[in-house]
Amino acid sequence: MTFVDSSAMAKQTSPSIYPLIDTHTHFDAPVFDNDRQLQAQQAYERGVRHLVLVGYLYRHFERLYDIEQVLNQQSLNKLSHLSTSQSSTMKADDDDEGSDKSSDKLRIISHVALGLHPFYIEQHNQDHLKQMAKIIAERRPLAIGEIGLDTFTDAMKVPAIFAKQQQFFKAQLDMAVTHQLPVMLHIRKAHAEALAILKAHDYDAHQLGGIAHSFSGGVQEAKAFVKLGFKLGVTGQVTNPNAKKLRHAIQAAVDVYGIECLVIETDCPDMTPIMCQTSNGSQSARSASSALGQSPNNEWGDAPSHNRNVPANLPWVLSSLSELLDVSIAKLAEQLWHNSCSALQTEWRYPI
Q1: What's the burial of 193, exposed, middle or buried (CB within 10 Å: 0-12/13-18/19+)?
Q2: Is residue 15 part of a domain?
Q3: Mean pLDDT on 19-23
Q4: 29 lies in a domain?
Q5: Contact yes or no for 67/27 (Cβ under 8 A)
Q6: Number of domains in the chain
């Protein structure tokens, strides 16, 4: 679990505002139920134009679509209050929410990705795969994810459990190929095994896109995923100067492949940028667990709502990455937008 306090953000000098895509969120989590609309508006005011609601358990798939509908309907309702000429202009820009002059009237556009997360493999069954395939065929999400392999705990290393992870990973890659959709990878402490599966599978990230979400490997792993066609998903972890392995891996990948190999994400309510965290508890303890995995039935348990990452924190990831790579924020922001569109196989126009 990670922690953020809105009052802490207010004390910081906020980064400049540029159009951004949050490529990975769990903004559908119940911890946002009391103020999701407010958080969406604040994210828009900080430059976020699109965000992806990413699946991890079958029983939450319908919730993803419900939240997507609520957020996007809100945007349409805001549009309906504009004049006819303004409305026509904005609708022409459609997905990119292209005009800054209406930033006080519009909200971000959300999109759904469906996936069965490896860390929760014991909660998945074969029927979930069948039903997921049916939903994809009927409702076509933006992407398949998050999927992959995870041996972070000893329980996940048990041969039978890991074999089930591999089977579900391959099955979901098959769905991505069938429906020609990009995938969002969750790979933790299993990079070699995941790379072996990807190299042997028909899924081609050069053609279909894809993101190595919240990348956590080293230099060689970073280069390997990019070589396969994946973008590296960079979270608030990059804001921590002590995350030397991660920061070095990102720099090394960029040295070879350029800034075209990166996208950014909040992974909210997890992965809070370090400048937005409270001082409650140790950093290592907070980063070791996921806010989403506290309870099978009640994500975040009894954690207070301010103890979370939010989409409005995405500019901190951008500014820290800009500093790390010694690339101007303006140049990096625009390139990250195009990278995200490439990874997600979309054509959202960059707002001018």
Answers
A1: middle
A2: yes
A3: 98
A4: yes
A5: yes
A6: 1
350 in a domain, yes or no?
no
Region for 236 from its dihedrals, namely left if φ exceeds 0, alpha if ψ lies in -120 to 50, beta otherwise: alpha
The token duo for 283 is 């950093």
**Distance from C-alpha of 283 to C-alpha of 68, rounded to nearest angstrom:** 32
Question: For residues 214 and 280, which has the higher predicted lDDT (pLDDT)?
Answer: 214
CA distances to 98, 156, 184 from 129, in Å:
37, 20, 17
pTM value? 0.87
Taking the C-alpha atoms of residue 113 and residue 203, their distance in angstroms, rounded to an integer, is 17
Predicted confidence (pLDDT) at residue 296 exceeds the cutoff of 80: no
Residue 249 phi/psi, 5-degree rounding, is: -65, -40
Q: CATH number of the domain that 179 lies in? A: 3.20.20.140
The DSSP bridge partners found for residue 185 are 147, 212
Counting residues of the chain whose pLDDT is more than 90, the rounded percentage is 75
Domain residue limits at 250: 6-344
Distances (CA, A) of 46 to 22, 37, 57, 118, 189: 12, 14, 30, 32, 33
The SS3 call for residue 67 is: helix
Give the N- to C-terminal CA distance of the chain in Å, as an integer.
36
How far apart CA 88 and CA 190 sit, in angstroms, is 49
Residue 292: pLDDT band (50, 70, 90) is low
Angle between the 61-80 and 84-93 helix axes, to the nearest 10 degrees? 140
What's at 93, amino acid-wise? D
* Residue 352 falls inside a structural domain: no
Three-state SS string across 79-109, please?
Answer: HHCCCHHHHHHHHHHHHHCCCHHHCCCCCCE
